[in-house]
Amino acid sequence: RYAYVNGRFVPHGEAMVHVEDRGFQFADGVYEVVTIIGGKLVDERGHLDRLARSLGELRIAWPVAPHVLKLLMRRLIAQNRVRQGTIYLQVTRGVAPRDFKFPKHSDSTLVMTTKRATSFATPEQLENGVKVISIPDIRWLRRDIKSVALLPQVLGKQRAVEAGAFEAWQLDPEGNVTEGCSSNAWIVTETGTLVTRCANNLILNGVTRLSIIRLAKEAGIPFEERAFSLEEAYRAREAFVSSASTFVMPVTRIDDHTVGNGRPGSFGERLRQAYLDYASGEGAS
Ligand code: PLP
């Protein structure tokens, strides 16, 4: 297996960045995770658009032109013979003597790795759904930037694992769910409306989220983009999370509450199928 590091394809075990890389020193960088199905990239356009936005907000220069990045991703996927899995790419402000302010001169660092996956969800997860716990959202207020500063998410995921859960839903000070640690949060209300939080600085606007919204609208599913409370989620008919690597994952337990009848619901199943069809069809490139 190979990794890409600043212009070179190197054996994974020898892939390294400098100790004074600002990604390492300050988490001064951004990333994307793109799913690969049938050797093709899923929703590449959405991920590159969001990368452009993250870089722009932080005033980090593109490490290579976007069309070159596309070629490099494909070369790494081909070289590692990944038919199904994910590609991770990280861009940092580059290497410079340690100092908080932006360096006058630095070349952005680009690192890419791939991961194979035999499946994106276990049969058990799809059959029974997963559990999520709720935790306070202790992150900064620019969650719209896909920053590599992920310590709150690391702590949140660890709490989830220790509670036997798949994900942790983060709560704002009003008690509304912002999103998962690495996924967006969705519910289907008691009256059958699909709800997910609106995308502003308080959540990461998932690329999968955007595709699901479009697919739901196309399918004529009643949809509202708004905040929802933990209590509303407890009472929901259905719940699920979305991300590039899980698509639509049914949630059947939130803290100590059973969601709906405790089984994955029909809205989630429909949207998962619609997303899978899209991801292996027109959404792949
Ligand atoms: N929200 C957060 C905080 C995330 O880290 C992620 C993905 O890692 C998502 C949402 C889902 O985004 P996407 O669908 O683009 O994977």
From TrEMBL:
E.C. number(s) listed in UniProt: 2.6.1.42
Keyword Transferase among record annotations: yes
Residues making up the signal peptide according to the UniProt record: none
A GO cellular component entry from the record: cytosol
Enzyme class: transferase
Cofactor(s) for this UniProt protein: pyridoxal 5'-phosphate
Keyword Transmembrane recorded: no
GO MF terms held by the record: L-isoleucine-2-oxoglutarate transaminase activity; L-leucine-2-oxoglutarate transaminase activity; L-valine-2-oxoglutarate transaminase activity
Keywords from the UniProt entry: Amino-acid biosynthesis, Aminotransferase, Branched-chain amino acid biosynthesis, Pyridoxal phosphate, Transferase
GO biological process: amino acid biosynthetic process; branched-chain amino acid biosynthetic process
Family that this chain belongs to: Belongs to the class-IV pyridoxal-phosphate-dependent aminotransferase family.
Function per UniProt: Acts on leucine, isoleucine and valine.
Protein name: Probable branched-chain-amino-acid aminotransferase
Organism: Skermanella stibiiresistens SB22
